[in-house]
Amino acid sequence: xxxxxxxxxxxxxxxxxxxxxxxxxxxxxxxxxGEQEAYEIGMxxxxxxxxxxxxxxxxxxxxxxxxxxxxxFGPMNMFxxxxxxxxxxxxxxxxxxxDTLYSRGWLDLTDGPVIVSVPDTxxxxxxxxxxDMWTDVFAxxxxxx
Length: 145
What we know:
There is one protein chain. The chain has one domain (8-111). 37% of the residues lie in helices and 6% in strands. The chain contains two helices and four strands; from the N terminus they run ααββββ. The strands form two sheets. A two-stranded antiparallel ribbon has the order 1-2. A two-stranded antiparallel ribbon has the order 3-4. It is elongated, with a radius of gyration of 21 Å. The chain starts with 7 loop residues before the first helix and ends in a 6-residue tail after the last strand. The mean pLDDT is 82.
């Protein structure tokens, strides 16, 4: 899914217009909803959206660095490499393998698809898992595929 970049004023106007249109429906729905049903809807929204918030915080932390200043950190649409193995106390992601060298890249698909290519690895094994903002792995190009 691709999203257009909006200016803050456009976004504010769109949100206000949407709220005005939905307000009467929301009031009617709130009167018909019981407390338990409203709670379940809220919990479902939280569970669905929490990974998006967490991944966006992680993304911002990873991309707000000049290239080459910190291992694995730097701007969007570039690979950033770790030149040493992760330490045992590394918790940047849940738990990295401690015998694996990593590279990381965040892709900005706002303006359309991005082509990702890998140089010849001379037969060495590699994986390039691609993860969406809900933390689901949707593709794993690599030496076997």
